[in-house]
């Protein structure tokens, strides 16, 4: 019996973080700071691509959602503990998945439950990181097809109501100077989420790209890791 208990202790459940990107040209590159930070802490991270900007025919909102669902379903079939992180549009999808799938924790970064500037979501973040080297590679982040804007809106409209069904622990981070998603959006959705453990952290003066903010990015990354590790409780 004791050998059995010892064996179980040596084989804890696998914990995997799945991060869902927003409606931006950089897609999973939005999470590069997070990817590097969690790699140092030996935390497994999966970054699914939700859409293909080089395929103008990729305009089915259900396909965008399905690409995230398939990752969570596969991990659940492996009995892994899934922690979801969603940025902007990815936050709405992540909340939907947390409502209908076995998710251990949910982290929302400037979730796009109510968008105010779709153009910023697609273009501003890419422009933020322009550099001489990147200008030599103009196709690194190709423009999003025009039809993708309506797909983004459809994804949000299809899923935003599911946040009221989320009962796993939730942490929301939102910048008070977000030029794309008003901070009031997160205040409203925070009140509607029924989870017993939930927290809303407002970052003073921060815009939409929280993980790239020159002042608060480090704090945000440490806060995310602490929540993942169970060091933060609400």
Automatic annotation (TrEMBL):
SUPFAM superfamilies: alpha/beta-Hydrolases (SSF53474)
GO term, biological process aspect, one: acylglycerol catabolic process
Cellular compartments per GO CC: membrane
Residues annotated as binding substrate: 23, 89
Keywords recorded for this protein, A-Z: Hydrolase
List of catalytic residues: 88 (nucleophile), 178 (charge relay system), 208 (charge relay system)
Molecular function per GO: monoacylglycerol lipase activity
Domain AB hydrolase-1: from-to ranges: 17-214
UniProt keyword Amino-acid biosynthesis present: no
Protein name: Alpha/beta fold hydrolase
Organism: Holdemania massiliensis
Organism lineage string: Bacteria, Bacillati, Bacillota, Erysipelotrichia, Erysipelotrichales
């Amino acid at each position: 019996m004791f050998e059995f208990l010892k064996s179980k202790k040596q084989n804890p459940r696998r914990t995997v973080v799945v991060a869902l990107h927003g409606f931006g040209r950089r897609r999973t590159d939005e999470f590069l700071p997070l990817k590097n930070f969690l790699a140092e802490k030996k935390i497994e991270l999966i970054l699914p691509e939700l859409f293909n900007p080089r395929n103008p025919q990729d305009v089915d909102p259900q396909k965008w959602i399905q690409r995230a669902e398939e990752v969570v379903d596969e991990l659940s079939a492996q009995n892994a503990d899934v922690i979801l992180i969603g940025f902007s549009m990815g936050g709405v999808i992540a909340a939907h998945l947390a409502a209908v799938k076995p998710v251990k924790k949910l982290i929302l970064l400037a979730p796009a439950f109510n968008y105010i500037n779709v153009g910023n979501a697609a273009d501003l973040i890419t422009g933020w990181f322009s550099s001489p080297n990147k200008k030599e590679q103009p196709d690194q982040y190709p423009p999003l097809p025009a039809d993708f804007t309506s797909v983004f809106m459809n994804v949000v409209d299809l899923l935003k109501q599911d946040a009221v069904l989320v009962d796993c622990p939730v942490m929301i981070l939102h910048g008070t100077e977000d030029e794309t998603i008003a901070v009031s959006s997160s205040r409203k959705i925070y009140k509607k989420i029924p989870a017993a453990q939930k927290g809303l952290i407002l970052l003073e003066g921060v815009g939409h790209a929280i993980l790239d903010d020159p002042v608060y990015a480090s704090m945000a990354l440490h806060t995310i890791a602490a929540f993942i590790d169970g060091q933060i409780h609400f």
